[in-house]
Amino acid sequence: MDVERAVPVKWTSNLEFLATLLGYSFGLPDVWRLPYLTYRNGGGAFLIAYALLMLLCGAPLYFIEIAMSQYSGKGPWRIWDICPLFRGFGLAVLVINMVSLVYDTTLRSWIIEYLVNSFKSELPWTSCNNSWNTDKCRTGFHRSVSYLNSSTYNTTTDRSLVYNVTSGVPQSVSSIEEFWMHKVLRRSSGIEDIGDVNGTYIFYYVLVRLAVFLACVKSVQSLGKMMYVTALLPVILVVVIWVRALVLPGAVDGMLYFIIPDFSKLANIQVWIEAAFMTFYTLGPGWGGLMMMGCHNHFQTNCLRAAVATTIATLLYGLLNGLVVFSVLGVMAREADVPITSAITSGGFSIGFIAYPKALSYFPVPQVWCVLFFISLLLPGIDAMAVETEPVMQIFEENFPRILHNKRPWLLGGFSILALALSIPFTTRVETGLTETFILCSADIYQH
Predict the structure, then answer these.
(1) By the 8 A CB rule, do 59 and 308 touch?
(2) C-alpha distance from residue 5 to each of 67, 391, 395, 400, 401 (Å)
(3) H or E element: which one contains 410?
(4) How far is CA 347 from the centre of its chain?
(5) 159-194 pLDDT, tens per residue?
(6) How many helices (H) and strands (E) does the chain have?
(7) How far is the C-alpha of 37 from the C-alpha of 29, rounded, in Å?
(8) Could you give the CA distance from residue 282 to residue 32 in angstroms, rounded to a whole number?
(9) DSSP letter string, 57-126
(10) How far does Cα 414 stand from its chain's mean position?
């Protein structure tokens, strides 16, 4: 067979293809972004807009991208043989995925850091007796410190804490926020203060890159089998956490706060803009992942059914995560005897890394629930990186078929080492803070 026209290896079953689609679409935004956007855009009203856009805009784009590659049998580069002028799209897919894979490793390492610390006899973010804590640390309930000129409620002192408007520094900082800023991010005093390289994070990077390597080393033959576990296990873990939260006081109040709509918000164009942003951010069209998966389909595969089913499943998974997040926030608010609005932190990112770990610390045997939660965050993250890596490999293989034929392990290994090397600067004190800012800005850019 002419290797230049070699047909991409096919999925061993349609179930593997469907599991990989789910692994690609189930991700961190469902946990830390959707609940916050729903909260600040009228609760159930935002969910109405989000559901409509997912079905009317997201599903068609999802289907078109899969169908184009399936019926042509070509990946993100060679699919543009139909019009070579458009091959720049393939180049764009290569660049954005390579850049994303460099900084995405940092985000997964933050999750691993939380996961490792969840095994300790005392959750380190629940106390102020750690080496990274300052004299401003408080263990009581405390709201996010991201904004100036705001107040928060502290159950330790039973009074509101008012921020210093002049300096922007709060009179007290919660232990979970100090863990996030000083232990996980290790924020420096400024861009000129680079600090040292965190060897622990480099070890985490190696683990993440190794997992992605094993997932992609045999293309979809290994990727699909990994997805059975990494795509479906988080759903089970999230349901387990939800069931546990439902038996605690305050959980129902939190869920009602999440789903009760403010219909007047539907007249606000910003609600629809953010719902559209969340639709594209969740389903991920345009990144080459769907084209990569589609070209490995058999010609007769019912990709329309797969696209619709995955879109609906992704929508339901996002709603489930919203219910889980607000049920545990409701538990925390009831325990701290504060309004649910005081349990919402200042940004969507904070729900995943500040509010949720703090909320789970209110559960009996909190270590177990924190381990389950961070595993349910980590596995979809590994899925996303694997699906981002595969189009990169495929584009190189489509451009240099004779040279790279049957050399996938060497190509993937070399790329993994390169990505790991480029990620090392992100382990310094200044780069972790910059990475946090970059991820937040990249998530918000479509809204402005």
Answers:
(1) yes
(2) 20, 17, 14, 11, 8
(3) helix 408-423
(4) 14
(5) 333 333 334 444 577 788 888 888 888 776 666 667
(6) 18, 4
(7) 10
(8) 12
(9) IIHHHHHHHHHHHHHHT--TTGGGGG-GGGHHHHHHHHHHHHHHHHHHHHHHHHHHHHHHHTTSSS-GGG
(10) 26
SS (H, E, C) 120-171: CCCCHHHCCCCCCCCCCEECCCCCCCCCCCCEEEECCCCEEEECCCCCCCCC
With H, G, I as helix, E, B as strand and everything else as coil, classify residue 173: strand
Q: How many residues does the chain have?
A: 448
pLDDT at residue 113 in the model: 92
Measured between alpha carbons, how far is 410 from 365 in angstroms, rounded to an integer?
45
R_g of the chain computed on alpha carbons: 22
DSSP β-ladder status, 173-174 and 137-138: parallel
> 352-365, pLDDT tens digit by residue?
677 678 777 877 88
pTM of this structure: 0.79
- 93-98 average pLDDT score: 88
> Cα-flanking dihedrals φ and ψ of residue 321, to 5°?
-65, -40
- Can you tell me whether residue 261 is helix, strand or coil? strand
Q: Residue 395: exposed, middle, or buried by beta-carbon count in 10 A (0-12, 13-18, 19+)?
A: buried
Q: What are 201's two structure tokens?
A: 């994070």
**Token duo for residue 71:** 């019926």
Q: Is 345 in a helix, a strand, or coil?
A: coil
Query: Helix, strand or coil for residue 401?
Result: helix
**What is the four-CA torsion angle of 200, 205, 210, 212, rounded to 10 degrees?**
150
Q: Which residues fall within 8 angstroms of residue 419, CB to CB, at 6 or more apart?
A: 98, 101, 102, 105, 209
Structure letter (DSSP) for residue 11: P
Q: Mapping DSSP to helix (H, G, I), strand (E, B) and coil, where does residue 354 land?
A: helix
Rounded to 5 degrees, φ, ψ at 375 are: -65, -40
Backbone CA torsion sign across 327, 332, 336, 341: negative
Residue with tokens 């399936």: 70
